[in-house]
Amino acid sequence: MSPRPEIERASVARGVELLREGGLVAFPTETVYGLGADATNADALARLYAVKGRPTDHPVIVHLSVQASLDDWAQKISPSAHTLAAAFWPGPLTLVLRAAARVSRRATGGLDTVGLRVPSHPMARDLLDEFGGGVAAPSANRFGRVSPTTAAGVHADLGNDVDLILDGGVCAVGVESTIVDCTGTEARVLRPGAVTIEEITEVLGASPLIGGSTRAPGTLASHYAPTATVELVTRPELAARAHALVTQGRKIGVIARNTDIDLPAMPPAAVTLATVTSVENFAHGLYAALRKADQVGVDVVLAVLPPEAGIGAAVADRLGRAAGGR
Ligand code: TXA
Ligand code: MG
User: Fold this and answer.
1) Taking the chain (326 residues) in consecutive chunks of 10 residues, what is each chunk's mean pLDDT?
2) Measured from the CB, is residue 218 less than 6 Å from ligand 1?
3) Beta carbon of 149 within 6 Å of any ligand 1 atom
4) Which atom of ligand 1 is nearest to the CA of 113?
5) Does the Cβ of 30 fall within 6 Å of ligand 1?
6) Which of 115, 116, 136, 279 could form a disulfide with 61 if both were Cys (CB 3.0 to 4.6 A apart)?
7) Are 251 and 269 in contact (CB under 8 A)?
8) How far apart are CA 319 and CA 317, in angstroms?
């Protein structure tokens, strides 16, 4: 592997120093940016929850280095959890496991289970390798808002409430990790993501259960929401709905695959918020598009869901929540 620029190394070292001092360090992952704190430092965790604006009974994910020992963090780990970890770590997968006794219940929201993830972004890996311990990190946005996929997005939302923002470019995946609860007899997908249901099924040799209620804010009906109203429409409904809203004087933004937008039929005033050619592309650009909607003062975002196969399930999930069940 070729060495990365010195400036990144220097800031990773500073990030490690700040984590050790109980600071808050925003860092890139392959999914979205995380807001990190030492998972064993009670004061740092208290500050993390305060800055995030998240209720203290909502658990955060603990991020680990590839070198970490799972047994330090979890116990009674099921064979399917080992299988999933071996197949998808480092990568966009979070496993919910029975927490080891020493894991701070402040990081788990008081639960006896813990969400663990080994990210693959090179800067996250460097940070976690050098820090050595677990880094508790929710997405680096205020509670209920759109997750950031750039360092600038973190800065816009959290500003100076963070001690350092490590800039690792635009997140490749663009939506949060797949969460799989492995504490029951069967694996259960709590949140769809880039590791797809199809891939999990293949690796486990059986379909996982899907859905289920936990104290998981990412699973609240209204979440990932911009200020603009998000409305889900079908491809045939799009142009007529856009015209109706423009007639009412509303500013319209559109998120859909190019093939789902009949451009000549659309009102010229409608703003295309993302250029979407594939479902991976849709996930990658989704949060930037929702942020853009607010930046350009769109009143209503009209979204056409992609097919729900693969990462399309995650896109449909997040857009459904952004629409707040509407
Ligand atoms: O891709 C991601 O997962 C990003 C990056 C930064 O790693 N992180 C992320 O964190 O999305 P957050 O806090 O925004 O969402 C984590 C979700 C929450 O819905 C949380 O409740 C759930 O994971 N979670 C964490 N620990 C859990 C547990 N023990 N049981 C059930 N859900 C858990
Ligand atoms: Mg989040």
Assistant:
1) 58 96 98 98 97 91 97 97 98 98 92 97 98 97 91 94 96 98 95 97 97 60 78 97 98 97 96 94 96 95 96 95 78
2) yes
3) no
4) 29
5) no
6) 115
7) yes
8) 6
